[in-house]
Design goal:
Two copies of one chain form a homodimer. Chain A is an alpha+beta fold. Chain A is 34% helix and 28% strand. Chain A has three domains: 13-272, BirA Bifunctional Protein, domain 2, CATH 3.30.930; 289-384, 3-Layer(aba) Sandwich (Rossmann fold), CATH 3.40.50; 401-471, C-terminal domain of ProRS (Translation Initiation Factor IF3, 2-Layer Sandwich). Chain A is built from 14 helices and 23 strands.
Chain lengths: 474, 474
């Protein structure tokens, strides 16, 4: 049914996005400027993201810890690139316990400094390495313009910070973790993405290089969705993180960090949702199946409970909507909240031994015999929904992927619509500045396959060193 | 084996406590004054606490949300009792994005204000009620003297905040949640505790009344371990949280909040640990069983893996210590880390078809046939350890529980050792001040059974209204 609270996606994408966020009650604005309240429906998605990623991190040997929220100014300043990158965005605590502080304390915008300070005290020998730590926490960046989930002053994330005895091991970790984000996007969120290396200009402040996972939204604009940084010895030299290697010589550790945030919830919406509200891929949906009994004879209620029990036993997150409201109201609510599958158990249909399944993604209704093996049927149908959602998103990305040989071609493409634009690049940051003049288009990633380089730099026409994907970004 | 890094508990309890925290690598001091780094062993305990409590909260219908970290000063000031209670402890953000702010922002010391502000916008009708929200987050209080887990400027906690249509329902919720904390302490942490009502002087700033769960540490000092507050309409009037009731009349909601913190980790240590390091009750231990193979023929390794697989399948958190270190080193490490049960699989013993179990709590070693049903044996043994730990703690509390009729008796008891002191009380805060003069002794809780009142007020000798338990506190 048409949802009047939601602007049509093709009419005003930005308005549509905010309408979906509010209609599905994922988050709300707060009285604190630039900060949001994550509501139950939104937080349940974050919890499911956490549980899946956390299990994967642990499987790979990582352990969770918790560093302090605040960073003394002198500690933050030890690594100069990081300070330069984050200084304009820092919130400062200057008063505590009714007194003015002697030294300002920053609310962490990211925790490289705290982890480095900690590691410098803890590591002695190569036998202590690697140390593979992660934390789930809130961070704060003083953003000027904010949008729910996509850009807010405070956001929730995880940040992994690891130290290693060798360059090879640390680089392997950097690569492994971007692959985890890629796996998470493709397999769990049904979001196809591209993975590559950030250019010098776009890399993380303080990193030797940054790997990034980039997704394409419905409107053709890119969303950076998970990054993994290789620091080499930059932080270990600034924070004096030394160890005795297996040759009994003192050496600085090799370091990585990697993170992803609540912003992925925004990505989920902008890839999959529609004019009727939220659409969630089954593997990330906190509630996968809603069962709605229709009829007053008690028959529908009884069968609904039986189906629910079977599905729960089979590991499917289903529930019966037993509230005192009309079936139509229940349908609409499940639809706007993005429950992947609805099962209608109607007493009239039961007389013909039928139940109805309604897919949220296609809104297709399928009538089946009430005698089917419900658990295996639903399992398969949820898998089909997941695969179909991924394939539709993939097709859209393909239709929004372009190639440009020069700035004129790029301009023409972007005048029509944004998208992933493949174009070769010489490596000169001034050429990136020229591209940026076209609607703020930026390099997303360098694709690591050199064979992809077939032409000259898109901006200056000189010898190309990299094959880069470009796009406007969120 | 004697642990030289740990001061004897009966020699210097405070030093012993810090030594155990450090030796078991639960947390460490950070470069940020008054803030700690929670290390992997400590954070794993917190994660297990979270997962058990969170499942219970959800079972009772609560949903998780996330409120902002910062509170604008004017919002904080709307409820005057709360401001007065927390003002001296607030950390203030006064600069952000390189500019001085027009209004100071407090780092949340607790989130009644933010929840109330949110609820005031969200609730309309009695049909929207109850709203049963909880959040897991960090809070900040500018403490002067700090101790790992027990008192730190930043700590992790959960805070539940609920609103209801009736007084009865809200009071039922307040009681229900203190009972959850009590259950958690008794059944999971093996910590006997007393539950009751805080006196007017000791209740939460802004509450109509506070219920508290109080545990007794090894040294006889009390630790407040979980509180549940009934606010009545105090916050709903201050923050204008109104709804239309089922008589179609406007009314203010009835409100509660309840919370417990990482401080419980400190409580666990101070109740159960010993001169050899950490001792954890099996139900809260992240790792319940360590299996240590001894011998180089491969036989011990193979059997250890088999045992581990069986235990894991049975839902027991076991692991094989396969590291390249001596059995003695492995024993000592498992001991200081508080792994409840050690299984020694030695090749010499296997020739006689024997394996050995070593309990961490009693340090008793039990030799058994290698043919026993290992899963059910270990399950039972872990239950026995849990029960024995609870009973020993309970006996100690009983031996540290006293009765006093007047201040002289109280002084005599406290001169010998602290403990739960039962004494009647007239209700006058000045009498509490007099008690406080004795080593800082405070009312812990009023026990709700009036029949317990048998005498006169311990301080003034006048008519008693309450039967109170008193003690020095952490």
């Amino acid at each position: 049914m048409e949802n009047k609270a939601i602007t049509k996606r093709d009419v005003d994408f930005a308005k549509w996005y905010t309408n979906v966020v509010m209609a599905a009650r994922l988050c709300d604005y707060s009285s604190v400027k630039g900060c949001m309240v994550i509501e139950p429906n939104g937080y349940a998605i974050w919890e499911k993201m956490q549980s899946i990623l956390d299990a994967k991190f642990k499987e790979l040997g990582h352990q969770n810890v918790q560093m302090p929220l605040l960073i003394p100014e002198n500690l933050l300043q030890k690594e100069s690139d990081l300070v330069e990158g984050f200084a304009p965005e820092v919130a400062w605590v200057t008063e505590g316990g009714s007194k003015k502080l002697e030294e300002r304390l920053a609310i962490r915008p990211t925790s490289e400094t705290l982890f480095s300070d900690y590691y410098s005290k803890k590591v002695n020998s190569y036998k202590d390495l690697p140390m593979l730590y992660n934390q789930w926490c809130n961070v704060f960046r003083w953003e000027k313009t904010t949008r729910p989930f996509l850009r807010s002053r405070e956001f929730l994330w995880q940040e992994g910070h690891t130290i290693h005895a060798t360059k090879e091991e640390a680089e392997k970790e950097t690569k492994q973790m971007i692959d985890v984000y890629r796996w998470f996007h493709h397999e769990i969120l049904a979001i196809p993405s591209i993975t590559g290396i950030k250019t010098e200009k776009e890399k993380f402040a303080g990193a030797e290089y940054s790997l990034s996972n980039e997704a394409l939204m419905y409107d053709g604009i890119a969303l950076q969705s998970g990054t993994s940084h290789y620091f080499g010895q930059k932080f270990s030299k600034a924070y004096n993180i030394k160890f005795t290697n297996n040759q009994n010589k003192e050496e600085y550790v090799y370091q990585t960090s990697w993170g992803t945030t609540t912003r992925m919830i925004g990505g989920l919406i902008m890839v999959h949702s529609d004019d009727y509200g939220l659409v969630l891929p089954p593997r990330i949906a906190p509630k996968q199946v809603v069962i709605i009994p229709i009829g007053k004879e008690g028959l529908a209620d009884k069968l609904s409970e039986e189906i629910n029990e079977k599905l729960n036993k089979g590991g499917i997150a289903s529930y019966v909507d037993k509230t005192d409201r009309s079936p139509g109201y229940k349908f609409a609510e499940a639809e706007v909240n993005g429950i992947p599958l609805r099962i209608e158990v109607g007493e009239r249909d039961l007389k013909e031994n039928k139940i109805t399944f309604a897919r949220r993604d296609t809104r297709e209704r399928i009538v089946e015999s009430a005698d089917i093996n419900i658990t295996s049927y639903v399992e398969k149908l949820l898998d089909t929904i997941q695969d179909d959602m991924y394939n539709r998103a993939k097709q859209r990305v393909e239709s929004q992927t372009f190639t440009a040989k020069n700035l004129d071609e790029m301009k023409k493409i972007l005048a029509k619509q944004p998208g992933f634009i493949h174009a070769d690049f010489c490596g000169n940051p001034e050429c990136e500045d020229k591209v940026k003049e076209i609607n703020g288009c930026k390099s997303r990633v360098i694709l690591p396959d050199e064979k992809l380089i077939t032409g000259k730099c898109v901006a200056c026409g000189k010898e190309a060193k990299y094959h880069v994907v470009w796009d406007i970004q969120y």
